[in-house]
């Protein structure tokens, strides 16, 4: 088609006009849409108080405000948690001994509470001048502790808190000790009597000491009487009380007092320490109780009370507590107030440690004079607060820091973390139970029982003994005689009479292989042949020292040796366990009266003697000898009528 300029121009005008119309229509709509959007934005901005001109910035500002709010809330929560755990933190991270010290007001209040309680509730004891019957038993407290430690389910908690309150001044009659028939009155309070009681009370329960002390004071009423007594008489009145070295030292000290101190017991700690068998504890006890000297007394019971009062994470046998800083803490209580009655204060602390603050104590008993002062019960409640407040993360961090931090010298290394772990586990178990006891009381009790730490258990030494029981009963005698010999003057059961015996095996010569549930599991059964050869060797040595005994020896070896019972007898000491195989030989038919009469032998410098049971009572024999005699009686009950008590 030929190009037409007019036609082309007309077409151009049509297109241009159409374009202008399109722009006008859609432009108007775009403006309307924009205006509508702006109006909506103004309404939204007005509701949120944001300038419409800052639309993009307002979003960022809102995000910043939310983050700031979260930070403020986090800081606030951390502050609340820090306040809630401040007490625990101070204990977990302490590193100075001063942390455990008493304030003056606290020491004054504790001393006053102890004196009021002690004067109203103390046990009636003969060395305190009380009239019979005498108390001293802590059976009720031991039973209470046993109920808690037994592996019962929740019943143990219920039983513990449901146990009736024990009144020390009103113990049951069958737990009391009456005076002998020839002594129905009280004993005078004397320094000598206090001294004897303190020696007897070393590692021995009060209720066991009372009858021995009474018999001792009747037989040896003054230090002069004791100094003049012979060794056998002293041993006879100590027999059965254990730790016989104490009797020998008491006897030696009496001679020292009579010969070097004009018969008067020294009145201060420094001079008392010169007495045989008297250490810091005994000297301080005698000085404060008998002579009113203001000095503290620290034993295991006192250490337990101090550990619970001041949150000391250690065991009661730790030297830092028992021999060092514990004395400083006890002195703060004894010297508080006007410093009077130090003997009563010391006895009050010791008595509390044996009763309401015994290992099974709760710290909550209404008759416990220090129930408002225990650090241990508060620790339990603070850990409960941490549980309830879900503060476990921060507490866990503090516990970890504690295990790696340097702590005070009173607490064991890592002891604070160990106590906390024990408390956390015990509290978790207790809270899972359904006991009808308040959560706070449960927490207090768990905290209290977590102090002090348990001392390390040392395995007892094991010894297997071959024991020879040689008996002779003459035609005109009513009771048989037994061959006994004295133990060495030093060591276990020093100077005591016993049946001849030989150690045929000891654990000291054996290297342990692996762990065993019971130390007695590794004690071997020594053959009868080995045991009898060892006894033959011992008796041969005896025979070589006395011609009269040669006939005894020959007769003994010609007779059949009879093992007593189906197995050995066990006798346990504090640090050693004896497994005794008894070989019995009856020489009655082989020996004449002339041969036996007056025979006294010596073996390795140790006296040997034939004794009847009546004579054994006069010289005193150990519980181990009595146990062997009982075994022999069971073997021949018809021939045995008289038994050593």
Descriptive notes:
This protein is α+β, with helices and mostly antiparallel strands and 645 residues long. It has 2 domains: 359 residues, Hypothetical protein, domain 2 (Endonuclease III, domain 1, Orthogonal Bundle); 173 residues, Nucleoside Triphosphate Pyrophosphohydrolase (Alpha-Beta Complex). It is built from 25 helices and 9 strands. Strands 1, 2, 3, 4, 5, 6, 7, 8 and 9 form a 9-stranded mixed beta sheet that branches. The longest helix has 44 residues. The N terminus and C terminus are likely disordered.
Number of domains: 2
Strand content: 5-15%
Q: How would you sum up the major sheet?
A: 9 strands, mixed
Query: So what's the CATH class of the largest domain?
Result: Mainly Alpha
- The whole-number mean of residue pLDDT values reads 79
CATH superfamily of the largest domain: Hypothetical protein, domain 2
Give the C-alpha Rg: 42 Å
- By secondary-structure content and strand pairing, the structural class works out as alpha+beta
- Distance from N terminus to C terminus (CA atoms, Å) equals 152 Å
Helical residues, percent: 40-55%
In terms of per-residue confidence, which ranges show pLDDT below 50 for 5 or more consecutive residues? Answer: 1-6, 23-34, 36-54, 70-77, 145-166, 169-174, 513-517, 637-645
Predict the CATH topology of the largest domain.
Endonuclease III, domain 1
Q: Kindly state the number of beta strands.
A: 9
């Amino acid at each position: 088609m030929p190009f037409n300029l007019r036609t082309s121009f007309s077409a151009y005008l049509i297109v241009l006009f159409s374009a202008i119309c399109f722009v006008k229509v859609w432009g108007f709509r775009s403006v309307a849409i924009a205006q509508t959007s702006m109006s909506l934005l103004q309404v939204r901005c007005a509701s949120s108080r944001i300038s419409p001109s800052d639309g993009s910035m307002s979003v960022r500002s809102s995000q910043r405000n939310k983050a700031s709010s979260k930070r403020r809330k986090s800081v606030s929560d951390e502050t609340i948690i820090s306040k809630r755990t401040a007490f625990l933190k101070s204990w977990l991270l302490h590193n100075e001994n001063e942390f455990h010290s008493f304030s003056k007001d606290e020491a004054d209040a504790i001393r006053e509470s102890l004196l009021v309680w002690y004067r109203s509730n103390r046990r009636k004891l003969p060395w305190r001048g009380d009239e019979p019957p005498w108390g001293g038993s802590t059976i009720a407290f031991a039973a209470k502790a046993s109920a808690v430690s037994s592996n019962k389910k929740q019943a143990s908690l219920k039983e513990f808190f449901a146990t009736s309150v024990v009144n020390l001044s009103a113990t049951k009659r069958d737990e009391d000790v009456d005076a002998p028939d020839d002594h129905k009155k009280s004993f005078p309070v004397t320094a000598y009597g206090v001294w004897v009681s303190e020696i007897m009370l070393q590692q021995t329960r009060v209720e066991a000491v009372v009858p021995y002390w009474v018999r001792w004071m009747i037989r040896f009423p003054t230090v002069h009487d004791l100094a003049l007594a012979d060794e056998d008489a002293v041993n006879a009145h100590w027999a059965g009380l254990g730790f016989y070295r104490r009797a020998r030292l008491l006897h030696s000290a009496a001679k020292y007092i009579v010969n070097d101190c004009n018969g008067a017991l020294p009145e201060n700690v420094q001079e008392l320490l010169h007495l045989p068998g008297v250490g810091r504890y005994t000297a301080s006890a005698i000085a404060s109780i008998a002579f009113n000297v203001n000095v503290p007394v620290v034993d295991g019971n006192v250490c337990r009370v101090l550990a619970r009062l001041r949150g000391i994470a250690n065991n009661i046998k730790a030297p830092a507590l028992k021999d060092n800083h514990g004395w400083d803490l006890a002195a703060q209580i004894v010297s508080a107030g006007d410093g009077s009655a130090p003997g009563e204060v010391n006895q009050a602390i010791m008595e509390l440690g044996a009763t309401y603050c015994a290992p099974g104590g709760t710290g909550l008993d209404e008759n416990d004079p220090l129930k408002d002062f225990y650090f241990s019960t508060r620790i339990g409640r603070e850990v409960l607060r941490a549980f309830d407040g879900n503060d476990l993360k921060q507490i866990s961090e503090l516990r970890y820091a504690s295990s790696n931090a340097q702590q005070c010298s009173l607490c064991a290394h890592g002891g604070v973390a160990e106590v906390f772990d024990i408390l956390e586990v015990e509290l978790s178990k207790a809270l899972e139970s359904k006991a009808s006891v308040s959560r706070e009381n449960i927490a207090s009790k768990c905290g209290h029982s977590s102090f002090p730490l348990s001392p390390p258990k040392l395995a007892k030494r094991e010894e297997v003994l071959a024991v020879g029981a040689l008996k002779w009963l003459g035609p005109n005698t009513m009771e048989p005689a037994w061959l006994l010999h004295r133990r060495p003057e030093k060591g276990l059961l020093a100077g005591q009479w016993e049946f001849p015996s030989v150690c045929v095996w000891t654990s000291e010569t054996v290297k342990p292989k692996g762990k065993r549930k019971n130390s007695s599991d590794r004690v071997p059964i020594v053959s009868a042949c080995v045991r009898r050869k060892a006894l033959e060797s011992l008796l041969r040595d005896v025979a070589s020292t006395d011609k009269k005994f040669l006939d005894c020896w020959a007769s003994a070896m010609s007779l059949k040796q009879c093992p007593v019972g189906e197995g050995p007898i066990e006798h346990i000491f504090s640090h050693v366990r004896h497994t005794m195989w008894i070989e019995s030989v009856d020489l009655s038919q082989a020996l004449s009266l002339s041969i036996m009469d007056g025979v006294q032998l010596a073996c390795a410098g140790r006296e040997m003697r034939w004794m009847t049971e009546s004579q054994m009572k006069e010289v005193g024999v150990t519980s181990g000898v009595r146990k062997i005699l009982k075994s022999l009686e069971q073997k021949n009950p018809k021939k045995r009528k008289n038994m050593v008590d």
